[in-house]
Design goal:
Nucleotidyltransferase, domain 5; four-stranded mixed sheet; 4 helices; structural constituent of ribosome; RNA-binding; Ribosomal_uL18_bac/plant/anim; Large ribosomal subunit protein uL18
């Protein structure tokens, strides 16, 4: 029996996620910025993998923003402010298995515009 389209997409995303996470780790000076996007909302968090702590996060659902290119730029702006407030200028970007285009690329570009390097 054929696998449903959504299950196949999720399986392939998890496969990409594991491949990326095998190479990407974050430290206190250069945390891993992990993103998650659903059809409705977008989330981002900066993680120190050595201690297993979240250093900063931005929640699009709490801000009342959707997962589109314009709203994601506002989420990136808030995330950049939080990172700068704790003294972080450089990150490791973890796209969490999502393809680097559309909303994910827009988020990354907005972070760069706000002074975060990766």
């Amino acid at each position: 029996m054929r696998e449903s389209v959504q299950r196949r997409k999720n399986r392939l995303r998890i496969k990409r996620k594991r491949r990326v996470r095998g190479k990407v780790t974050g430290t206190a000076q250069r945390p891993r910025l992990s993103i998650f996007k659903s059809n409705r909302h977008f989330y981002a968090q900066a993680i120190d993998d050595t201690k297993g702590h979240t250093l900063a996060y931005a929640d699009g659902a709490k801000m009342g923003l959707k997962a589109n290119r314009e709203d994601v730029k506002k989420i990136a702006e808030q995330m950049a402010e939080k990172l700068k407030a704790i003294g972080i200028e450089t990150i490791v970007f973890d796209r969490n298995g999502f393809l680097y285009h559309g909303v994910v690329a827009s988020f990354a570009d907005a972070l760069r515009e706000n002074g975060i390097k990766f």
